[in-house]
Amino acid sequence: MTYLMFAIGLAALFFGGEYLVRGASAIARHFRLSPLVIGLTIVGFGTSAPELLVSVQAALAGQPAIAIGNVIGSNIANVLLILGVSAVIAALMIPVTRLVRDIAFMLGACALMWWMLGDGVISRLEGAVLFGGLITFLGLAFFTGKEESDSSDEPLIEQWKAWAMTIGGLVVLVIGARLLVDSSTQIARTFGISEAVIGLTIVAVGTSLPELATSVIAAWRKQTEIAVGNVIGSNIFNVFGILGVTALITPIPAEARFASVDMPWVMGSALLLTAFAVFLRGIPRIAGAGLLVIYVIYLALIGG
User: Fold this and answer.
1) Dihedral of the alpha carbons of 58, 73, 19, 23, in degrees to the nearest 10
2) What is the CA radius of gyration of the chain?
3) What is the mean pLDDT of residues 185-192?
4) How far is the C-alpha of 174 from the C-alpha of 155, rounded, in Å?
5) Which residues on adjacent β-strands are paired with residue 250?
6) Is 3 exposed, middle or buried (0-12, 13-18, 19+ CB in 10 A)?
7) Is residue 150 part of a domain?
8) Cα–Cα distance between 92 and 77 in angstroms, integer?
């Protein structure tokens, strides 16, 4: 029964995230936002809704290791797994000048999270600082991301349908998040696996399924800006939004391993993405394969 709950939870996260993204993207297009801004904000944040729900519910349920491990593991999976798979399907090339501000925000968010984890707890005050970073990023993105016209070839969805899809997707995500937290905790206890490792792997990858589906589909359709923007926006939201909101609700105790073992992987993957953007002008297929190899190594190391 536990495994059935886990499977249903994952499916709910995937389909709920899909409808949430489609509805939110249609709303964004109505306001004439560029594909990159849609990827960075509406799509990136929308696909991070599962992580938000899982982390808040885990923290309130007294499972802080899952709450933090979910965010850290998702940021690692976003770059190494999701961009890796997407780049293998189609090279993700994009002018670095369009990404400078957003990559800087991502690196800053990761560095700030690493520093906050150093004292073993993310306080409400630190949560407020993180949430302030989210508001700042959103303001800059929206005010600088307007387009003269809608360049998408996809048919517009009526606004009432877009809002219905967005709200309905969010409801399904809430249900899926609850099932996922409950079942993954039971699985961890059954096999004697620590909640930190479960949060870093099973829950993190499970809640990243909407990002994976979105970026893979975008790569297949040659919508590079949405594929890359989705991951960068999701990583920014994971830190500023998820940890910020969760810490505002309740301070989050942090195991020492997160700062010493896992955060170097978060910063390393973010710096690797930055290096690809600067020196390769994106992620060619061979680089995508390299990201997947690194992710397999990471999983082997933390599971050992």
Assistant:
1) 100
2) 18
3) 80
4) 29
5) none
6) exposed
7) no
8) 17
